[in-house]
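agent> fetching stored inputs for the magnesium ion docking request
agent> found them:
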Amino acid sequence: MGVPAGGPGVGAESTAQVITHSHSSARRSADTELRDYRAAFAIAQSAMALLAPDGTVLDANRALGTLLGLSPERLTAEGAASLLGLTGDAHARGAFHDVLSGRRDRLRCTRRITRGDGAALRAEITLSRAAGGAALLLSVEDVGERDTLREQLRHLRMHDPVTRLPNRALFFERLTDACVTTDGRTGRIGLCYLDLDGFKAVNDTLGHRVGDALLAAVARRLLSCAEPGGHLVARLGGDEFVLLVRDSTGTGQATELAESVLTALQRPFDVAGHRLAVSASIGVVEREAAGSSATGLMQAADTTLYWAKADGKARWTLFDPERNEHRMTRQALSRTLRQAVERGEFVLDYQPLVALDSGELRGVEALVRWEHPHFGRLAPNRFIGLAEEDGSIVQLGRWVLAESCRQARAWQQAYPAAPLTVSVNVAVRQVWDSDLVADVAAILAQTGLPPRLLQLELTESAVMGSAGRPLQALHALHEMGVRIAIDDFGTGYSNLAYMSRLPVSALKLDGSFVQGFRSAEHPNPADETIVEALVELAHRLGLTVTAECVENAEQAERLRRIGCDTGQGWHYSRPVGAEAISRLLA
Ligand code: C2E
Ligand code: MG
Ligand code: MG
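agent> prediction call returned; pasting tokens
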């Protein structure tokens, strides 16, 4: 701004002069500004142009000419829209015109532009209104290199350096995409999730370099199994790989792929002077994409891989919803088991042991059941194993023992003429992890049950090779007058000579012997001969013999002939509640 001259007494003329003066000085200064601006504009590294509101190029700098490979005349002759290749793209052209007409402040987009020499260019275009004026400032930046660099960085971030395969991050991205069904796809996804068997040993013994080389070789074999474009092979980390089938046609396709992977890995690997053999365990999951999630699929694949390993490795296993259900309830059960004992969710059923010759009721076996609040009544095979694993069997076993003895004493008092033995199953851990002898002594004292009316059932494997604590416990219990029975005899070592040295009173022949008898039309004399010899030997050693799983009269008759003492099974009664036993006694 010019400095206004004048002051008091300044006339109109001079005022006008002042104004003119001031105006011209403003223009001069604007001209200077424009000149400076022009100079900067001309020499700037950034490619720029000034556009008129109709889109014609008023002025363009050298950098823009260089970038687009056009002479300054060509630049000003053509409209900006055609220079930037916008004419063919209605959407981009619309946005461009919106800025020109003032409907929109700014436009920024990335486009492929064809240069004057025909070469392609990836450019970021910015169009905005020049400050205060009607003209618009266009700037164009070559982002090809930047984008290439970005892509290289992304590639590095998304790939595993050892095998050059897509890594976990990229795999999850693709899997997530695959879960979104779109037209033209089968709508199904297949996954082969594999883990090398014994890879750790290679790594540990031959070192990481050999390990890495082996992984890279495995990756190449996996790629050879994959259909280019159709399957994605990725390394998830360590020795875990995954093959994704995007447009799966069914479980057959996924299991065939798994099979081909196993075959491909069968040939040994020659790596860094070593000949190495590896196998893989593969979890196969195949399902509808709709309703699937990447994490859900991977959880299923993980579980299935675990099954493949547990089933013996070097194989593929297909996801099985039922097996999974079982696993889930197993988890759910194991979580609630401990409190269940405290909450008293268990009940006992009793199954009669009947004298084979007279048909008299001699005793009952106590069989525990879990009245689960969600799953209903559960048989012991659902939870005894879990209870043994987590140790809650000790508490549960103590409760079973106390409740059985209380009930047996009640029967003894109510029906003194027909004393019943109660037979209680004891888990190995109860012998090892608790003071079974002290527990039994205390319970017998509390309930008043005579020790001879209590029988403890242990499995062969529990007492086999017993020395130290278990052996002492058996002797102490025997001395107390409690009977010891070997449960499921015949399924383990069946070492009668060994049993005879233990303080054992009874054998319970496993149900499989009786089932081996078959029917009258197809008798199996071999089985009968074995059982007969067993019974004879047991009797000579002073043991009584109970046969389990007696399901019909014919079996009962043959067992009686062979010389078994008592029988237990559905032929006599299923396991029943205590009241039902009371009714039998009455
Ligand atoms: P176990 O001691 O051999 O018990 C006999 C099993 O055979 C019982 O199954 C019984 O219901 C079943 N059974 C009885 N008669 C027949 C028959 O004629 N045919 C067939 N097919 N089966 C018959 P349950 O009650 O399911 O018990 C399974 C196992 O659970 C028991 O086998 C025992 O090892 C264990 N168990 C049960 N209660 C307890 C317990 O309180 N503590 C411990 N540690 N284990 C228990
Ligand atoms: Mg038993
Ligand atoms: Mg048994």
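agent> quick read of the result: The radius of gyration is 44 Å.
agent> awaiting further instructions
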